[in-house]
Amino acid sequence: MDRNGNRVFWGLWAGLTLLWLASNLGAPDLRFFALRAAALQLTGVLAIGAMSLAMLLALRPRLLEGPLGGLDRIYRLHRRLGIGALIVATVHWLWAQGPKWAVARGWLERPHRGPRPPVEDPLQAALAGLRHPAESVGEWAFYAILALGLIALIPRIPYRWFRRSHRLTPLAFLALVFHSVVLFDLAQWPTPQGLVLGLLMLGGAWAAAVSLSGRIGAGRRVAGTLVGKRFHPGVHALEKRVRLGEGWPGHLPGQFAFLTSDRREGAHPYTLASAWDPATREIVVIAKELGRHTTGLEHRLRIGQPVTVEGPYGRFTFDDGAERQIWIGGGIGIAPFVARMKALAACGPGGERPVDLFHCTREVDEGALALLAADAAAAGVRLHVLVEARDGFLTGARIRETVPRWREAGIWFCGPSRFGAALRADFDAQGFPVEERFHQELFELR
Predict the structure, then answer these.
(1) In what order do the strands lie in the sheet with 355-361?
(2) Which residues have C-beta within 8 Å of that of residue 37, sequence separation ≥ 6?
(3) What residues have CB less than 8 Å from 152, skipping those under 6 apart?
(4) Which domains does the chain have, with CATH numbers?
(5) Which residues lie across from 357 on neighbouring strands?
(6) What is the tens place of the pLDDT at every residue in 124-183?
């Protein structure tokens, strides 16, 4: 399903470029300042178009989860569009500022402009009067977007800083929409380029308004109550059990949800580690102590505390036509497989295809491993636990040695992205159809 995301990503750049070229047919003016004006228009169109689509994807659109392969892929495309827009916006800024610096240093001579004819069209006159404010607003909005982009891209910056600063992105985007509307060639609006760009900016502005009002995902939120918790000290992980109120549609094993237990901290994504039972209306999530929010969560949470749950999301649902399956859970990535095993145990393992589950971990908690072994036995799943210090790293060769009929399998991976990428490349080199049968959860918020 990554192929669809690639098509959208490259299709946007190619489509906007072709629309711009179609609207600017004719003999090109090769003088420097004429080329500069053309470059400013093209890079501006590309940057604001990509930002607009990225804003729309930030709404977690349900209709696109199927075509794009789940919210994890939607967020990945959102991130790629943001990076691409930032790069193109930087080129746009350099075209705007570079010639000014060159003229100031005497390297370029500004072309002579005669007196401009009076503007009779009131709309054109109004836009002309806003030109200088729009340029100033656009410049400062670019600096803001650049700073916000760097915060999002630098892993060492704490997640809480990223989450709080990212709330300013819609404001900076709206400022850039104002900049673009004023400075876009008025004669181009009735063209296909203008119509497509206008729709993109209108959609992006609406998405920005939804974000600023805190309504992203509002239609998929359900109130719940924390009814149980269990801490596994060996792996520094907290298991939370939440009873949901009315409105939860149920979920499939492998899906995830956003949980909010503290409004100041906001929503955090967790893979659901339980099968859905409408009789109990309970879900289980596992939180690994990885940062400020999750560290010490055991002591901050109290039984009976209200929790908001948003979801379910994701397409990591073990739905394939393979004769057998190979599951690989790295660290906390074991959660979706726990949910699937519980669902299989509830239905009875009889008649199910063979499943091999590889659980790789650096830390050991005997209690947690005993629970995992019990789930695997109840579901009829063949469990292989690899402790890094004792057993070394899991490799593709090791999997193929353990599962001789691996070519018949569908592979499902959840864990560190580099680990997954290495296994995918390894199986690809062996002729395994990774595009169709290597399924990897790619959810990353930044």
Answers:
(1) 382-387, 355-361, 324-330, 409-414, 438-440
(2) none
(3) 79, 82, 162, 166, 446
(4) 2-212 (1.20.120), 218-313 (2.40.30.10), 324-440 (3.40.50.80)
(5) 327, 383
(6) 878 888 999 999 999 999 999 999 999 988 878 877 788 888 899 999 999 999 999 999
